[in-house]
Amino acid sequence: MTKSHLRQKRRARAGFTLTELMVVLLILALLIALVTPNVIRYVGQARVQAAEAQMANFASALEMYRLEVGRYPDTAAGLGALISAPSNARNWAGPYLPGGRVPDDPWGNAYVYERISMDCFVIRSYGRDGAAGGSGEDEEIARRSC
């Protein structure tokens, strides 16, 4: 055999056939189809857990505010009272949250704070859709302290 004939034979065996490539692509597509829904579900659960953890941090900061000021911030002042002193807050020793701002929930929406009474408040995240109600990631998450 000549050298050129051997080179041609090696080149012919070096590549993959179209059928082999199609089988590999089909297997990859099946794996992606099976794995993607689970990954999306775990991301949603992680966001809900992050919102719950952030609301727990707000509740701790609100307790510090209450210890120093003597009451929870009113609804109008909201969570912003943890960053800058409201005009009616004596003995305010904040800021009670790091970073100089109240963070948004994991979906980019503002948390909703409401003082129910002098000794009770509720913090809400309306979830992915930003509206009351819903289910899954769209479900309202609330933390109440009384």
What is the structure about, briefly put?
The protein is α+β, with helices and mostly antiparallel strands. Helix content is 44%, strand content 12%. The model has no long low-confidence stretch (mean pLDDT 86).
Question: Can you describe this structure?
Answer:
This protein is of the alpha+beta class. The chain has a single domain, classed as Glycoprotein, Type 4 Pilin (2-Layer Sandwich), CATH 3.30.700. The protein contains 2 helices and 3 strands. It has helices spanning 3-14, 18-69, and strands spanning 112-117, 120-125, 141-145. The chain has a 3-stranded antiparallel β-sheet with strand order 1-2-3, covered by helices on one side. The longest helix is centred in the first third of the chain and has 52 residues, at 18-69. It is elongated and about 100 Å long. The termini are far apart. The mean pLDDT is 86.
Topology (SSEs and partners):
Elements: H1 3-14, H2 18-69, E1 112-117, E2 120-125, E3 141-145
Antiparallel strand pairs: 1-2, 2-3
By secondary-structure content and strand pairing, the structural class works out as: alpha+beta
Radius of gyration, in angstroms, nearest whole number: 28 Å
Number of domains: 1
Q: How many helix segments?
A: 2
* CATH homologous superfamily heading: Glycoprotein, Type 4 Pilin
Low-confidence stretches: none
| CATH architectural label | 2-Layer Sandwich
Tell me about the biggest sheet? 3 strands, antiparallel
Query: Gap between N and C termini, in Å?
Result: 92 Å
Percent of residues in helices: 40-55%
* CATH class bucket: Alpha Beta
User: What spatial form do the alpha-carbon principal axes imply?
Assistant: elongated
Side by side, the strands of the main sheet go 1-2-3
Strand content: 5-15%
* DSSP summary, beta strand count: 3
- Mean pLDDT across the residues is 86
Give the CATH topology: Glycoprotein, Type 4 Pilin
